[in-house]
Amino acid sequence: MWDMNEYFPIEKIDILGHSYKIICDPSSKACEENLAPSAEDPKGLKGVIIYQELTIYLDPGLSVSEKIQVLIHELLHGISYHLTNSYLFGESEREEENFINLLSGTLSQTVLSTLREWSYGNQRTRKRAKTATSSI
Question: What distance lies between CA 68 and its chain's CA centroid?
């Protein structure tokens, strides 16, 4: 069985030459503050990228597959910011957010299914190799 937890915690990610820390720690006060509910986001955020701090905060309560989707979402924001310092994927913040939501959902499903297939193929290969060596 494939265990996505082996890919987390990811601690850093490079976005166009900028090294971002990834914080997904339930005991982190900064994580709690940056994801907290607000007037703009009454439910709170699942993730946020702070360009000036080179930091991405992820909600520690998310499943690993949700963390991957949110990380891809924030990565797309980072690409947009570092390429244009404006909106790369739309004419407004709302358009950009809508497009990034669509794209991050699609990309995360592709990445997750690819990792599952890759893992399944490797497990079958390891099983065949183990069977072959144990019969010698």
Answer: 3
Q: What is the largest CA-CA distance in the chain?
A: 67
Q: Which residue, chain included where needed, has tokens 């358009």?
A: 95
Q: How far is Cα 14 from Cα 20, in angstroms, rounded to an integer? A: 6
Cα 32 to Cα 25, 37, 56, 67, 71: the distances in Å are: 9, 10, 12, 16, 17
List, for residues 2-16, the tens digit of each pLDDT value.
455 555 668 899 999
Extended beta strands in the chain, E state: 12-15, 18-23, 47-50, 55-58
Q: Are 21 and 57 in contact (CB under 8 A)?
A: no
68-107 pLDDT, tens per residue? 999 999 999 999 899 887 777 778 888 888 999 999 999 9
- Assess whether the previous peptide bond of 60 is cis (omega < 30° from 0): no
For residue 136, give every residue at least 6 positions away whose Cβ sits within 8 Å of its Cβ, in sequence order, or none.
none
Q: What is the C-alpha separation between 58 and 48, in angstroms, rounded? A: 7
